Amino acid sequence: MLPIKDDNPTRSKPIITYLLIFLNVAVFGYELSLMATGRLESFLYSYALIPREIVSGTALYTLFTSMFLHGGLMHIFGNMLYLYIFGNNVEDIMGKTRFLIFYLISGLAASALQIFVNPYSEIPNLGASGAIAGVLGAYLVAFPRARVHCIVIFGFFVRWVVLPAIVVLFFWFVLQLLSGLGSLSYSSPNSGGVAYFAHIGGFIAGLLLVNFFRKR
Predict the structure, then answer these.
(1) Bridge partners of 147?
(2) Burial class (CB within 10 angstroms; exposed 0-12, middle 13-18, buried 19+) of 178
(3) Which has the least CB within 10 A, 55, 68, 183, 200?
(4) Known catalytic residues?
């Protein structure tokens, strides 16, 4: 199920949402330039989050820098699509400064849960997924009945459907939860893959913090 847009107009321009998208795309463009010169791996190991380093108290800056790195075209496309669709409305109810703080805290909460689950991992964690998961959690609380247009793909079956946000986002969360629980059986210092628990941590943070950051 791939969301395409929502029927949920905003009262103000989502400047922070657009700025976050711009920064993520700009950094990804820089990553592509490093790939051409063979320096990408060194860059990622310097600025992506490595749980073992955080637990040992080093490279703490990567808790923030890792939120703006991505591992491939589909990775950044999916993240920016979700941020574009759902971020504007969450920014609208919080205001620009509150939304930015909320976004960063959601990203930190996402990293915290991922580190807790596999604290000695030496695999770099990167991506805006955890922070954006916080945005999804906030959207679910604030706009559960908002109409979301999605493309459903199942084998050769492709259909455009319009569903309430609570169905779309609950389905997304359950998928992350099941995938995360499934990944526990092979968690090790050298295991990689998708950081599902970062998605879960960010989403739960969004659920819990949205009303605290919401404008009165």
Answers:
(1) 7, 164
(2) exposed
(3) 55
(4) 129, 199
Pairing of strands 2-7, 157-164: unpaired
Q: Are 122 and 47 in contact (CB under 8 A)?
A: no
Asked if the structure places residue 155 within a domain, the reply is: no
Q: What's the pTM value of the predicted model, to 2 decimals?
A: 0.91
Residue 159 within a domain:
no
Closest CA to 131 of 188, 49, 57: 49
pLDDT in tens, 135-165: 999 999 999 999 999 998 877 788 999 999 9
Burial 39-63 (b: 16+ CB within 10 A, else e): eeeeebeebbbbbbbbeeeebeebb
pLDDT value at 189 more than 80: no
**What is the residue type of 183?**
S
